[in-house]
Structure formats: C-alpha cells, structure tokens
Design brief:
198 residues, alpha/beta, CBS-domain, four-stranded mixed β-sheet, 8 helices, 31% helix
Length: 198
C-alpha cells in the first residue's frame, strides 16, 4: 500500500453555520386495523430526546420545541430512566400549583418538580405491541387515561430496556388528525396492570 498520505485541506467556519440532523419524515397514514408497530416511535430507529431532572422546566420546553417532540425521557448521568416530562406537564396546572405552594418563580421550576416518576409509569412489552393493531393502542391509552405509553423489550437476562413510545398525538396524526378522547383517570399501578391484563 503506498504511503502517500497527507493532511486534508481545512478552512474556517462561516458565522451562521449549523449542522445536519436526521430528517423528520412524515409517518405514513394508518387505519385502525393496521399493525400497532406502525404508530410506535422505535428508539432503535429514532433517537430518544432526554433531559436531566435538574434542568429547568423552561429548558425542557425549549428542548421539546427544538426537537419537535411533546415528551422527554428524564434520565440521570448513566441514562437510567427516572421518569417522563410532557408538554402537558409544562403547559398544564402543575407549574401553577408549584408556584402557589412554594412561592417560587416559573423560571425556578425544575423538571424533577413536574415529571411523572418511573414508579408511576406503566409499560407495554414489545411482543404485545407486535401482535396488536392501531385500534388496540387507542383502547389501551383510553383505558389507562394517558396520552403516552412506554414500550419495553428485555435482554437475555430479562433486564428491561425502553424500546419505544406509543403516543396519542402520533396516532392522531397518522389516523388523519381525528382527536382521540383520553379521559383523565387517576389510577394506581395495580389498577392499570389489572386492566391491561384483560
């Protein structure tokens, strides 16, 4: 092999330079009877957007807007899932309640203050999703009273890993924009687990 190596030509960057990002391809339209995986955001194909619990609520909101998402995974320095924060958490009643209770400014509210903690989240196994239809996803979200559900897979030792996300917003978009009525239901984990088993 010849040794005619040499340095690559280099030059300065323009002041307004930005960077390439994955294209946000519009998801394909679906029908209620289509496979549920067609509406799942698969984190093996789409990068999960994360935030630290110590970030401010406003920082989390900016991250959502910049990445065109409505949900962030809240993780620690090891990428261990601590919970979720959604645009509803930011734009809803939680911040107002915290401001009134603690006497703090909106800019002081942290993600940890408004997120839904991991121990309050339920998940669906990827095997169940691969056997389900879009209408089953809608029924599940309505039954648990949430606009999002995590999908997990497991390694050979049975350790869970978040594989993806089912989102009412995504389903609505792919079904042509028809709103899905998700009733606000306060349930504990045992009730949700029992409901999903039927």
């Amino acid at each position: 092999m010849p040794h005619d190596f040499g340095p690559l030509p280099a030059f300065g960057l323009q002041p307004a330079v930005t960077f390439h990002q994955p294209e946000h391809a519009e998801p394909a339209p679906v029908q209620p009877g289509d496979p549920a995986v067609a509406v799942m955001t698969d984190f093996r194909r789409v990068r999960a957007i994360t935030v630290a619990p110590g970030a401010t609520m406003d920082d989390a909101h900016e991250r959502m807007v910049a990445n065109r998402v409505h949900l962030l995974l809240v993780v620690d320095a090891r990428n261990t899932l601590l919970g979720l924060v959604t645009s509803t958490d930011i734009e809803g009643e939680k911040p107002l309640r915290i401001i009134n209770e603690r006497g703090i400014r909106r800019a002081e509210i942290l993600v940890a203050d408004i997120m839904t903690a991991r121990d309050r989240l339920e998940a669906i196994d990827i095997d169940a999703v691969t056997r389900a239809r879009v209408a089953d996803v809608v029924a599940t979200l309505q039954a648990v009273g949430r606009r999002h559900a995590l999908v997990v897979d497991r390694d050979a030792q049975g350790v869970q890993c978040v594989r993806g996300l089912l989102s009412a917003s995504q389903v609505e978009k792919q079904l042509g924009g028809a709103a899905i009525d998700i009733p606000e239901i306060a349930r504990n984990f045992a009730q949700v687990e029992e409901m999903l088993a039927h």
